[in-house]
Design a protein that fits this description.
Blueprint lengths: L3 H10 L5 H8 L7 E3 L20 E8 L2 E8 L10 H17 L2 E8 L7 H4 L6 H13 L4 E10 L4 H4 L3 E5 L4 E3 L3 H8 L5 H5 L1 H8 L4 E3 L2 H11 L24 H5 L10 H8 L6 E3 L11 E8 L2 E8 L7 H16 L4 E7 L6 H6 L1 H14 L4 E10 H6 L9 E5 L3 E3 L3 H18 L6 H19 L1 H6 L5 E3 L4 H12 L15
This protein binds coenzyme A.
Length: about 500
């Protein structure tokens, strides 16, 4: 935890709870907070700052009066809650989920604003600081409530988190909001004024009208936010929810089912049975092109009563033409009957070689990518193994904007495996060195290979990918069912549109 006990004690002296305690108080009693992107900021190596714990911001989903709500909360223990590039990315990701799924947002604002040494990387561009407020304005116009609980500094551009909210709550002698703080005011105009008198809770709730609710402490302020959201209509699901039945297989079985060696093949059917209601997995085209077609398994199952279409890599996961065609068919069928789709990714790529090329692996892979891109149903991705090359596209990787993307410690996401990349780059290097009349020795080749494999192993690792928000959460195996259930539920809060696919090739 950022700053350890000392930081918590420092906050307590100011009359503040730490950020996760505030969130626990805000959500419905006895419910879980689904915290996103906890690895954000790990090992980022920014100027003078190596790690930004959790990206300096806590985001996630919790229920308020039964309604799923996105919570975005600065952690003032991390460089005064200032925004690094990764902080912004995490803030934007939370807002993107909220907008897409139709969730109200609560911002717990306590931030020194832009991390000033990196202003060029956080201030001027799209998806930089200004986009936070652009998103707030548009979401509020869509009817999604944007509520701010200010519990610390909100200076300069950061002040807009208070003023752009549909309703904002400020706390006496804790919250401040101003376009220029007291030092800047003194420098600019000569006026000497305290923060409280310049832009404290009393100023904004009684004089300027920039904030709406005055509270004396954090507990009162949290209660006020809950009160504001009390009149929100209950959310509705847009799929039928069947009765929930627990799996007949224990979640612990997954630890046995998924081998520690990432490139070892898996029995994905057994994995699906371990997460499905009543361990029931209905399979589409089970007998089709055995040994090639079943490197992807397609079908349906329920998670906590919610139906999910399944596209899951199986065995070694290399995608043959037959598997790609079957996957495309099933994505279209699920879109047709408006069933959300879960992609279980454990594939190192599409099959290469002349046989495959001549059979049309390019065009059938493209069909799969097109159907993944155009499917209008909510899509989720769970990475439980290799995740390389075009298989990342066909299995709904980040660029295909799944509603939620989860991975596990078995996930390895990179353009190709370290071994393959080493061979490709080694062949280029060998040619270059031969051209220079200095062919590589066997030792040099081995050292070259090894350094590439080490680099790829590092960059494909869930810690590296999680730090950069390539996943919404790295899940422990026994957490998968709860998180998928939450993700499907949140993803079907908006009505599901009608299917439309572009120009498939067949
Ligand atoms: N950019 C970079 N670093 C910042 C920062 C900023 N905007 N604001 C604070 N920090 C750093 C401090 O240098 C300090 O670093 P250290 O722990 O390595 O010494 C750390 O964050 C904590 O700051 P501190 O001032 O001790 O915290 P605080 O709780 O007493 O006060 C603020 C918090 C936000 C009121 C105060 O830091 C502040 O006024 N910051 C400047 C705000 C501003 O003008 N922002 C404009 C940018 S849009």
């Amino acid at each position: 935890m950022a700053g350890g006990e000392a930081a918590i004690n420092r906050l307590a002296k100011q009359g503040k709870h730490h950020v996760r305690q505030l969130i626990a108080n805000l959500i419905d009693e006895g419910t879980e907070f689904f915290e996103l992107c906890r690895l954000a900021g790990f090992g980022m190596d920014y100027p003078e700052v190596e790690d930004v714990p959790c990206g300096g911001i806590v985001t996630g989903l919790g229920r308020i009066h039964g309604n799923w709500t996105m919570i975005v909360a600065n952690d003032s223990r991390v460089k005064a809650g200032t925004y690094f590039p990764i902080t912004l990315k995490k803030h934007m990701r939370a807002q993107a989920i909220a907008e897409r799924c139709g969730l109200n947002c609560v911002y717990i604002a306590d931030s020194g604003g832009a991390y000033l040494p990196m202003q060029a990387d956080v201030f001027p561009d799209d998806q930089h600081f200004g986009s936070m407020f652009y998103n707030m304005a548009r979401m509020s116009a869509m009817g999604l409530k944007q509520i701010t609980l200010s519990t610390g500094g909100n200076t300069a551009g950061g002040a807009y988190i208070v003023f752009m909210a549909c309703q904002s709550v400020m706390i006496e002698k804790l919250s401040y909001s101003f376009l220029g703080g007291p030092p800047l005011v003194k420098a600019a105009t000569g006026e000497v004024i305290s923060a409280e008198d310049l832009g404290g809770a009393r100023v904004h709730t009684q004089i300027s009208g920039g904030a709406d609710h005055f509270c004396r402490n954090q507990d009162e302020a949290v209660a006020k936010v809950r009160e504001i959201l009390m009149y929100e209509p209950p959310q509705k699901l847009h799929v039928h929810r069947y009765a929930e039945v627990p799996p007949r297989v224990s979640a612990q079985a997954i630890y046995e089912l998924l081998p520690a060696k990432v490139h070892q093949g898996i029995n994905t059917r057994a994995f699906l049975e371990a997460i499905a209601d009543d361990s029931q997995f209905f399979e589409y085209k089970r007998n089709y092109a055995m040994g090639r077609g079943d490197n992807i398994v397609a079908g349906k199952l329920c998670i906590k009563g919610l139906p999910l279409g399944i596209i899951a890599a199986n065995g070694l996961g290399i995608i043959f033409v037959e598997a790609a065609r079957k996957a495309t068919e099933w994505i279209i069928r699920c879109s047709q009957d408006k069933t959300p789709i879960l992609f279980v990714q454990s594939s190192p790529g599409y099959m290469v070689g002349s046989e495959s090329e001549h059979m049309g692996i390019g065009k059938y892979g493209a069909d799969m990518v097109r159907s993944v891109s155009c499917a209008q149903v909510p899509r989720l991705q769970l990475v439980i193994g290799p995740d390389n090359g075009a298989a990342n596209y066909g299995m709904c990787g980040r660029a295909y904007r799944p509603h939620f993307l989860f991975s596990t410690m078995r996930a390895r996401t990179s353009v190709m495996s370290g071994r393959s990349a080493a061979e490709v780059l080694l062949s280029i290097e060998e040619r270059k060195r031969e051209g220079q009349g200095e062919p590589m020795s066997a030792e040099e080749k081995q050292a070259f290979r090894q350094s590439l494999m080490d680099k790829y192993d590092g960059e494909a690792h869930p810690f590296f990918c999680g730090a950069r928000l390539l996943t919404d959460r790295v899940l422990k195996f026994h957490e998968i069912r709860d998180w998928l259930a939450m993700a499907v539920e949140v993803s079907v809060l908006r009505p599901i549109g009608d299917p439309a696919f572009g120009n498939l090739r067949f």
